[in-house]
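Researcher: Going back to the complex we discussed earlier. I've cleaned up the inputs and rechecked each line, so this should be the final set. Can you rerun the prediction on the complete assembly and write out the structure?
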Amino acid sequence: MNHDAETGNRARTGGDHLPSSPLSIDDMTVAYHRKPVLWDVDLDIPEGQLIGMIGPNGAGKSTVIKAALDLVPKISGRVRFFGKPYARQRRLVAYVPQRESIDWDFPVSALDVAVMGCYGRIGWFRPVTRKDREVAREALDRVGMADYAHRQISQLSGGQQQRVFLARALAQEARMYIMDEPLAGVDAATERVIVGLLRDLREAGRTVLAVHHDLQTVREYFDQVIMLNMRVVAAGPTADVFTKENLDKTYGGRLTLLDEAAQAMAMNGRE
Amino acid sequence: MAELFEVLLVPMQYPFMVRGLLASLLVGLVCGVVGCFVVLRGMAFFGDAMSHSILPGIALGYLIGGGARGPLFGWAMVTAIVVAISIGAVSKTGRLKEDTSIGIIFAGMFALGVALISLGRSYSLDLVHFLFGDVLGVSWMDLGLTAFFGVLVVLILLLFYKEFLVVSFDETLARTLRLPSTALYYALLILIAVTIVASIQTVGVALMLAMLITPPATAYLLVRRLPAMMALSALLGACSGVAGLYLSYYAGIASGAAIVLVCTGLFMLVLLFTSIRRLRRHDAR
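Model: Rerun complete. Updated structure for the full complex:
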């Protein structure tokens, strides 16, 4: 029985369906100014699930994402998206950065921002077509922002701005969505819209990796959870991994084993 | 009505005024478009440094050419591109703060330019022309070069509009889309450099900055989308150029200064107008 199920599975994952994990990271280490911020990160993210990444401030949550997307340099490690390096798979991956990283006074409308999601497909020298605008408008509609398409982004509330950036990611029509704190500082209405959207994406077989800050809602929102504090403390199905013991290891007692190691190294460096 | 026509037409009987008017119009237009990116990316200081740093190039060409104005355009262009790339490199990798590094290059190059010009015979007159512009001395050749490079710069900006928009608005997205953001940054610096060279004879190195930032800043206060901002800024720049030249003719003031004063006046008016409108809206709530 088991064997049959396995071969059946393999048959399904063959053909036009990529067999590899949406994101797999091996032995990734990242440092800023020679100070290590991430050690030996190993992750294998399953397809079609909602994955939350949690950890205290400075745990390196954003850094995992940025290093995986080649936005910050890695000291070592190998990252594969659907089996290949990011450079060759960028169209399959959409990234929603933290809201603070954007110049909100820039003279662009919500629709302009959503259309930018199509730029990767449009390519050089070609103008934005009516079809691209339709895709963008549809994406705005999915996050409940269609009525605000022509507003300049500075005239939107924080939650609305976040939704516009999600719309831009939707317009990229990717297979994996990576979001840095999509629910940070948003209003309740926006939170409902975004969580609904994440579930729709899962229904459609997409994979979502989101940095999350609110421990109260982890069980409700995410199928899998990654607990991070400079290294991966635990990762797996939320029901198995999101335990008090692991939370203590991730957040509790400032001096974890790893901190001690890092401090010892820093001391050695000074001598 | 007839009087207005006369006011507008009288200066046109002088061919140098016709050339000057066309030059001011073109410069206002091109600077208005390119300047939008200078304003939105916060590169005003860079623009000022760029235009001042061209001076030694112009001065060198002037000394070697024995005072001939013809070859100056080429000298200015080469200097501008070299300066653009060096300032770009310094500001990306320097050990000092970006504005400090740019300031050092800017002041040093400017001093070198003044020193070189002081070796020439008609020191003060030439210096004034280079610093504040000599739009009435524009030849048909100069006008042709200004038109050619101005149109080229605007065409390139329009051709790569999407890409320049993304790198200016959200560099992270540009990088995840695998756009060559560093190359686009340098391309923008070079486009600004070429714009400055094409405009230098009209307003001069010291007043150049105003053409690059005042009309775009005025437009920014009035409209909410980049294409509209670029169009309005070009229109404001061109109108200021033309109006400034008439002002210079009738009031007998230096042409570069007159053009910049018109730009600044328009900005002040719009600032006042939009501030009052804001206050009113605030009260209405």
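Model: Worth noting: Confidence is low (pLDDT under 50) at residues 1-18 of chain A.
Researcher: Good, that matches what I expected from the previous run.
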